[in-house]
Amino acid sequence: MLPLVAKEFAGWTQVWAPAKVNLYLRVVGKRPDGYHELATHMLPLPVYDTILARMAPTLSLQCDDPTLPIDSTNLVMKAALLISQRHATDSGAEIALRKRIPHQAGMGGGSSDAAATLVCLNHLWNLGLGKNELASMALELGSDVPFFLGKGPAWCTGRGEDLTPLATPEAGLHLVVVKPSEGLSTKEIFARFKAKPMGAAWRADADAETGSDFNFKQAIAQSAQAVADTLRNDLEGPAVQLLPALAHIRAELMAAGAQAVVMTGSGSAMVALAADATKAVSVGQRLMLTRTPAGPVAVFVASTVPSNTD
Ligand code: C5P
Q1: Residue in 2, 94, 3, 116 with CA at minimum distance from that of residue 49
Q2: Does the Cβ of 12 fall within 6 Å of ligand 1?
Q3: Domain range holding 25?
Q4: Strand locations in the chain, DSSP E?
Q5: Ligand 1: does its nearest atom lie under 6 Å from the Cβ of 121?
């Protein structure tokens, strides 16, 4: 699924930008720079936005979702402006964004679009930028953006940018992702979380809660059942306060036969694990019929394939 690749198609350079889910997210503490130190697992999900670009005298963006801005507040435009200012001041491009990943979902749509834009324009403008140059621009664009330049499932620390590949179980994970129509703001969710301030003396290796991280990492090397027993997201508390319908979705997923449920990222999508692919489809179908207090839901069903972490 990853890494992102640029392909020529009908006169356009095209990059498919996948979604992600977090199966584990521990907020370690609040850093002196205002960001939160995280210990999290991120997994690409086969739901894709598409970035298309072709040569033009100036930079412009169009999008098939009319609710999204197409000015410099859109992460695609931010990424295009950044790479052009740093590496291609005389180049322009007509960029088209086809949006399929729900926004304000914790599914990384905006971050993935930003990473895909860097890869797309690096190819279109023939810049030859390497991994490190792309990764440093990626982190300027957002904490999750470097993940999408990586190779697949990863254990992520720092703001989320320090990546260690972490394979999923051989037998596969069977996921049902449910996104209520209402979204949540990452900034607001982090602001509501009561994180402990991290003093200068804090050290990763002395972090008292790393036992929980260790258990998750052991579980993901073992089996889907072990993963189901170790799911965690510290941001779910503040998210449920803002959007109580999330508790309803969790209960519906469990009643439909899910093994375990966790919110992804800062929400509002919820991820359920199912025992097998057939069960995942039946859980997804049941959720499609559920009337949640937050209105209709979008449902995505996917299974992982063994990941190559070489
Ligand atoms: O990095 P990004 O722009 O995606 O983050 C959006 C907001 O989420 C940040 O402005 C910050 O308030 C919060 N955040 C955080 N710690 C992180 C990631 C995000 O506090 N590791």
Answers
A1: 116
A2: no
A3: 6-164
A4: 6-9, 12-30, 36-56, 59-63, 92-98, 154-158, 162-165, 174-180, 232-233, 260-263, 270-274, 297-303
A5: no
Q: Which of residues 164, 191, 216 is at a domain's end?
A: 164
In a domain, 1, yes or no: no
Number of domains in the chain: 2
Pairwise CA distance, residues 147 & 135, whole Å: 9
What's residue 1's pLDDT?
59
Mean pLDDT of 227-238: 98
Q: Which residues are catalytic?
A: 20, 144
Which residue has the CA at smallest separation from atom 9 of ligand 1?
Answer: 187
Distances (CA, A) of 19 to 91, 110, 144, 259: 29, 9, 11, 22
pLDDT tops 80 at residue 202: no
Q: Is 187 in the pocket of ligand 1 (CB under 6 A)?
A: yes
Using the predicted structure, report yes or no on whether residue 310 has a pLDDT greater than 60: no
Look at residue 309 and tell me whether its pLDDT is greater than 60: no
pLDDT score at 295: 78
Q: Tell me the mean pLDDT in the region 103-131.
A: 97
Please name which of 20, 46, 45, 22 lies closest in space to residue 227, comparing C-alpha atoms. Answer: 22
Q: Which two tokens stand for residue 218?
A: 């052991």
Residue nearest to atom 12 of ligand 1 (CA): 187
Threshold 0.90, pTM exceeds:
yes
Contact 246, 270 (CB under 8 A): yes
